[in-house]
Write a structure and sequence with these properties.
Keywords: Oxidoreductase. The protein is α/β, with parallel strands linked by helices. The protein has 7 helices and 8 strands. 41% of the residues lie in helices and 16% in strands. The longest helix has 29 residues. The protein binds NADP nicotinamide-adenine-dinucleotide phosphate (NAP). NADP nicotinamide-adenine-dinucleotide phosphate binds next to helix 1, helix 4 and strand 5. The site of NADP nicotinamide-adenine-dinucleotide phosphate has 31 residues, from helix 1, helix 4 and strand 5.
Length: 272
Amino acid sequence: MGTLIDSNPQQLVWLITGTSSGIGRHLALEVLKRGDRVIATARARSMPQLQSLAVLGADVLELDVTDSPEHLKEIAKKAVALHGHVDVVVNNAGISVMGSIEEHTLEESYQQFNTNFFGGVSIARAFLPYMRERRSGTILWIGSLAGWTPSISFGMYSAAKHAVRGISETLNAEISHLGLRSHVVELGYFSTNIIPNRIPYVPRISDYSEIIGRADGYFDSIYGHEPGDPAKAATIIVDLVRGRVLRRARRFRLFWGWVRITIKRPSCIART
Ligand SMILES: NC(=O)c1ccc[n+]([C@@H]2O[C@H](COP(=O)([O-])OP(=O)(O)OC[C@H]3O[C@@H](n4cnc5c(N)ncnc54)[C@H](OP(=O)(O)O)[C@@H]3O)[C@@H](O)[C@H]2O)c1
């Protein structure tokens, strides 16, 4: 695998959504470690968790990706004002809503898509005007193994991650002539809070209780034993954005602790 994108020796300004835990938090820490600037964001209830990032030099902003597009535009304006620009926006915030597709209410389905899909779309729309003006910027989307495979008990999550891949790749095709890029990084199973924080299954149709219960039990059993190390994923993601060669990106496979990154087809996979 050769060099993926041009090296960028400059200090970059990153804005990351959902940095109170997991991938987002590790990414913020890695960005700081590299000497870049990070605007770490979280929804109101999780702002105290950003204190330790602020101590390390992060700027912190309250940002709920499900807020109105108008409000998110105001936040983008505030974020850009901090350092004059934002180079990299990471659409990381995510939740998982458990249950079978037939049992889900429309509200539950919207809740899943509003956070994992439309939230990212609104964030991209809020920052793209500034990026277009500078003819420079990257939108990074955190996708998932579930964006490729059938995912019993989290079908709406899976559907939203399929959509994330679709929008990232299409957006890239629409903005690359402007010097901008949009990439999706798709993760296998990583040790974060996504399993304990999952929105629980509400049984409504007895025909599904066994299959969904079994899948739910599986998540409980792997929690704490996920093979993917989020700190290593963060290293790979920052390497990617900074244009470092992904020497470990050899295999085309997506599973467990693997990270799949679509820059141009074919994608490359890195083992964490
Ligand atoms: N862990 C994995 O195995 C895995 C695999 C594939 C993809 N991913 C993706 O990785 C991303 C990060 O998840 P994670 O695994 O690191 O889980 P996590 O530890 O639960 O982190 C999720 C983050 O998203 C935030 N968030 C949720 N709803 C939000 C909203 N409306 N606005 C702003 N922030 C919000 C959470 O904040 P609160 O503290 O306020 O809840 C938290 O900081 C997600 O997109 C997830 O789908 C994870």
